[in-house]
Design brief:
Elements: H1 14-31, E1 45-50, E2 60-61, E3 66-68, E4 73-78, E5 87-89, E6 94-97, E7 103-108, E8 114-126, E9 128-130, E10 134-135, E11 141-148, E12 150-155, E13 164-173
Antiparallel strand pairs: 1-13, 2-5, 3-4, 4-7, 5-6, 6-13, 7-12, 8-11, 8-13, 9-12, 10-11
């Protein structure tokens, strides 16, 4: 075969294009009314984490820290565009995502696919939106459905009455 000496493909660069294309494709696919991808029965794993079992001190800052749900699922809460870092509070038994753009990344290990994420919120603070898939109506329990290796949730509220207080999270994956 032909061998090219001294040429290296440019690093990066394609990521933005791929992300944009994937987001567009996911939105289009979901709008098209496709059935959610279901793994063969018996293959799915459900991993649940109750935040008050983490042993965090009241008002503990969790910004950017990896929180393991199980060996395959990791949560990372971030301050991102918000003015306040995410923190655990005893009063709400949960981790608070503050208004104006705090984020939560739910990531599966390589080769794993998340199909459902069930949130239990406290104090009627359930204002988040996902970067793919769909999220059930606002309420104390909201469920994301889709098919992704990772999902980013962003707080959508713009004042102190519109945050997200994540008390429990249950992730189904295969």
């Amino acid at each position: 075969g032909t061998r090219f000496e001294g040429t290296t493909p440019p690093a990066g660069g394609d990521e933005g294009g791929n992300e944009g294309g994937n987001e567009g494709g996911n939105e289009g696919g979901n709008e098209g009314g496709q059935d959610p991808v279901t793994p063969p029965s018996g293959d799915a794993t459900v991993a649940k984490l109750v935040m008050n079992t983490l042993g965090l001190a009241n008002a503990a800052n969790v910004d950017g820290k990896e929180i393991k749900v199980d060996d395959n699922i990791t949560l990372v809460f971030k301050k991102a565009a918000s003015a306040t870092a995410p923190a655990y509070y005893d009063a709400s038994n949960g981790i608070r995502m503050y208004q104006n753009g705090a984020t939560l990344d739910v990531t599966a290990a390589s080769g794993k696919t998340i199909t459902s994420i069930k949130f239990t919120f406290d104090y009627k603070q359930w204002y988040i939106a996902p970067d793919s898939g769909s999220l059930s109506a606002e309420g104390d329990v909201r469920t994301w459905t889709g098919s992704a290796n990772a999902v980013k949730f962003t707080s959508t509220g713009t004042d102190k009455n519109h945050r997200a207080y994540v008390k429990e999270i249950e992730v189904t994956y295969y």
